[in-house]
Amino acid sequence: MRGIAAKFIRVNERIRVPQVRLIDTTGEQIGIIPTREALKIALDKGYDLVEISPTAKPPVCKIMNYGKYKYELNKKAKSAKKKQHVIHLKEMRLRPKIEEHDYQFKLRHVREFLEKGHKVKVFVQFRGREMAHQELGHNILQRLEENLRDLGIVEQKAKFEGRSLSLTFTPKG
Question: Are strands 19-23 and 60-64 parallel, antiparallel or unpaired?
Fold first, then answer.
């Protein structure tokens, strides 16, 4: 909301409609009056005339402190952003003829990603004649699935995408 929303909020002389529905500082509805008159009332009280609902017919305006209103909007936007939880998709690439130590190393990293709450896409990349031995890739992914049963759920079963066989895990609970 910061910046973008503040640009679209019309205040005082920027409100260019003939009539507005006016709301007082206490929240009490005054009624539909000409914009010039509403602006005069707001300025006499030492406040701003702020357009709250520009799409209404006639637009709804409220007498308030505009600086305070912008501050409240930014505060709401920040608290909404804090509550969001972004799940990242991490990727791990394996080869069909992977050595045991390398497999354990990659497995440890996939475990860490799942523990942190990230989705993990594991794929076995085939090159050249390795495509003739696709069962090696299936075996690796099955083994990985068994080793990660306690931490993750298979979201997408093993499937081919071009020259790679991929499998997606989501963290449990």
Answer: parallel
The string of pLDDT tens digits covering residues 110-126 is 999 999 989 999 999 99
State which of 56, 83, 110 marks the end of a domain: 83
pLDDT in tens, 40-83: 999 999 999 999 988 989 999 999 999 998 998 899 888 888 87
CATH of the domain at 107: 3.30.110.10
Residue 139, C-beta contacts closer than 8 angstroms, at least 6 positions apart: none
Q: Are 60 and 29 in contact (CB under 8 A)?
A: no
CA distances from 12 to 28, 66, 131, 159, 173 (A): 19, 10, 70, 60, 51
